[in-house]
Structure formats: structure tokens, C-alpha cells
Amino acid sequence: MDTSSTTTTPTDGNGKAAVHSVWLFTDGLVNAGDTSPDVIQQKAEKLLRSCPQPVSVHTFGYGTSHNAELLRNIAEVGHGMYYYVENAEQIGEAFVECLGGLLSVVAQNLRVIIKSVPGSEVQEVYTTFKAEKVDGAWQVSISDMFAEEHRDILCRVKVNSLPMAVNEASIISCEVQYEDALADAKKECASGKCCIARPENATPLSEQVVPHILDQQRNRIKTMQVFEQARQAADCGDFSLAQNLVCAQRLAVSSSSSAPTPYTHHLIAELDGAASSFAPAVYATSGQKAILQSEGMWKNERSAGKPSQPMFRNSKQAALGAAFKPQQPTPVQQPPPPPTPQYKPFPMPPPPCASSACQPMQPPPIPFNAQQQQQQPQITLPVSLSSSASSAPAPPRQQQPQTTLPISLTSSAPQPQQQQQQAPFAFESFPTPPQQPSPVVTPC
Asked: Residue 412 burial by CB count (10 A; 0-12/13-18/19+): exposed, middle or buried?
């Protein structure tokens, strides 16, 4: 690692390089000045090149009426991210994702240089970042990196035959140049080599097992190409072709060797969401904006404020997201209800008189009529009577009036048309013995 060459850049007073960023918030279309998206993009790129220090531009589009493609293009030339804020609930999510990333910048102005070694040739570099060939070497420009992030670059390499088998053979060399944001933006350089085994009897290509990490990145880059083709078809009104392209790519990803991995599970979920975004009724309002946001996230391998895809989020972003997440009100715990009192039955006192004279008089028996027994249903009615006599001496028995209780009975059984009416039952109260308290009659 070569650390001899250093440069001086503005710091934040703590020995760290200052991070410069511009946030663009908008909820509508361009309505003043230059309204051409191409002209606006060119002016933004020219202005950023004239800045003495690297500046990132992040765009936030609110609602469904903004020009999402213009905001995405401005974010690309500014090496930033485009955030689609569909509703008010997503404002905080997008805000903390962007802020947490800027607070965790560890490297700026990254450049990866890929060179061929004798006996091999780098034919193509597959990446979503800007790549160009300069003096026989490939240069990939990456603006900055947050803590815990990674960048993946695929290369197609042509390897010449060797006169003898070797366990380890170098095929390419890599060099990474960057400014350390944690050490006064001092320029750093790291290098390395990529080696493979060259056995005498190589396994046929059809029988080789593709490593998961290689298959994952191949699926990611191919999915981004499919998204771009599907967007072009949808912009021309061919929504059927757009959905067919997405469904075919989903089938290819789900049948790849890395399908069981969590990384590919997230990619499949993204393809499922894209298929619904390309529906004719959805694409014009929110579908295009959701697709552009997904493209930026998977191209840059960086979180873009989508609650459904937290896989690229680092610890700083997750901590800020948890801090700004609205807390649910804690329900007030009500005190437990008091226990229901258990009451014991109060014992009934014994009757004051247990002699036969204190028992209630039974009604006289009713004469049995066999014919009436067959025509009328038998109804038994328990009757409880109590009598309370005055404490004064009772008059003679022959002068005491009789107590008559009329009883009306109703039966659902059919009654005969002519039925002999029975006289109401007559009950007489038992006279109280002289100079004795009133008896309490126990119900029968």
C-alpha cells in the first residue's frame, strides 16, 4: 500500500475530511428557466465538475407528479441517489437513509484500475458504474463508499494455455485509489491480484459449479439491464412486453444456482414488485418512479429508503432509522378489577312451632273422573301460600271469612268444546291459638 503522496483538503475540525452534499427536494415539474431535462442535466454536470471538492447530489421526489427520470439523471451525474417519497410516512425513511449514509462516509473519489497480466486478457468489464479503457487498462470510477458497503465488478478474462499445470496462476491485477475520509482525505492506494488454479485435467465447463457470489452479481447486472429494457417498452405503451421481460428474468433468477441465498431472495422480491409496477394503471402514476428507485438501489448497491429492501443498509442508517421511527403509544394498564366477594348462604332459622297444628292445611282431594282424565291433560301447579294473622285474638271460626284464590290454567293441548267448569279452590287459613304469636307457615 502506497501512502507517500498526500493532499490537503478541508476537514470538519476532528481530523476527518468534510463531506459535501446537496439535497434537492421537489414535488412538481420544472416550470421556470430551462425546462428541457437534457439541458438541466448538462448544466448540473458542468457545475459539479467546477467544484474544487467532490459534491454528491441526492434528489427527493414527492408524490406522483414530479419528473422522476429527470431527478434520477441529476442524481446519477451527482453520484447520489434518487429517493421516491410516495407518501408522508416515507419522508422520515428516506431522510435517515441519506443522512445516515453521509455520516458514515469512509472513502471518496474511488477509482478501480484493472490490468491484464502476461498470459491473460481482460476482454470486458461488467459493472453499473462508469467504466472506460485507458492505456490498455480498465478504469472504474466510484464516487464514495459508506462504512460496511461493498462494490462488485465482474470481468470477462481470456486465459492462454500453460505448458504445465499450476496450483495458482495470476490472471489480472487490481489497484484501488481513494481518499481516506477518516484521515484528512489522504490519498491511499491498495493493490492485489486475482489468481485461479490451473490443474492438468480441468473440470468441463458444463460440470463446474458457479460460486454463489458470482451468480448473484451476474443476476443483479442482468436484472438492471432487463429493467431498462422494460422501461423503454412501457414508455412506448407496450406494457405486455415489459411485464413479459420481467417475468422471464424472474424465472431465470429463481432457477439459478444462488436462488436459495438471502441476496437472491431480495432480488426475486424486487422482480415481483416490478411486475406489478409495469401494470398500465400503475406505471403512469407510481410504477415508473418505483422502478427508477429500485434501479438506483441495485446499481449502486446502496440503500434507497425502501422499507421493503433493507439489505444494503449499514449500522449507522439502521440506528438513525430506529431513532426517528415513531414510537407507538404505550397502552395504559388498567388496574385489575377487585375480586368478587364470596357470600355464604345465611342459614334459615327453624320454624318456631314444629307441631302438626302449625302445618298448612292441605286442599281437599278432587274426585277422580275417568272420562275427564282422558279428555284433559294433567297439569300440576305447585302453590305456595303464606298467611299472616294479627297478634290480636282471632274471632270465632264461624265468623272468619274464607280466602278464595282463583287460578287460571292454560294448556297447549286441545281442549274439548264442552268442559265442565270446576269451582275455584278454596283455602282456609288456620286460626291462631289465643295468646300465641303468629305462626310462620313454611311453603309447601
From this structure: exposed
CA gyration radius, the chain = 47
Strands 120-126 and 137-146: unpaired
User: What DSSP letter does each residue of 243-293 carry, written as one string?
Assistant: HHHHHHHHHHHHTSTTTTSHHHHHHHHHHHHHHHHTSHHHIIIIIHHHHHH
| Residues in CB range of 356: below 8 A, 6 or more apart | none
Joined grid coordinates for residue 403:
280466602
Q: Estimate the share of the chain in helix, then strand, then coil, as percent rounded to the nearest 5.
A: 30, 20, 45
Residue among 339, 249, 305, 348 at smallest CA distance from 75? 305
Cβ atoms of residues 111 and 89 within 8 Å: no
**Chain-wide mean pLDDT for the chain?**
78
Closest CA to 94 of 9, 159, 23: 23
Cell of residue 416, nine digits: 274439548
Cβ atoms of 73 and 292 closer than 8 Å = no
367 SS3 class: coil
Secondary structure (3-state) at 95: helix
- Give the number of other Cβ atoms within 10 Å of residue 57's Cβ: 22
Instruction: Report the alpha-carbon distance of residue 392 to residue 395 in Å, rounded.
Output: 9
**Per-residue pLDDT tens digits for 240-273:** 999 999 999 999 999 999 999 999 999 999 999 9
Contact 258, 217 (CB under 8 A): no
Q: Rounded to whole angstroms, how far apart are CA atoms 242 and 236?
A: 10
CA distance 212 to 177: 28
**80, 59 Cβ separation under 8 angstroms:** yes
- State the SS3 of 159-172: ECCCCCCEEEEEEE
Q: Are 6 and 186 in contact (CB under 8 A)?
A: yes
Per the model's pLDDT, the better-predicted residue between 303 and 5 turns out to be 303
pLDDT digits (tens, 9 = 90+) for 378-437: 555 554 544 444 444 445 554 545 544 454 444 444 544 444 445 454 445 455 555 555
Please say whether the beta carbons of 147 and 106 come within 8 A.
yes
Beta bridge partners of 59: 24, 82
- Sole residue written with cell 468489464: 125
Grid coordinates representing 213 are 457470489
State the DSSP H helix or E strand holding residue 220, giving kind and residue range, or none if neither. helix 212-235
Residue recorded with cell 464516487: 143
Residue found by looking up cell 297478634 in the block: 391
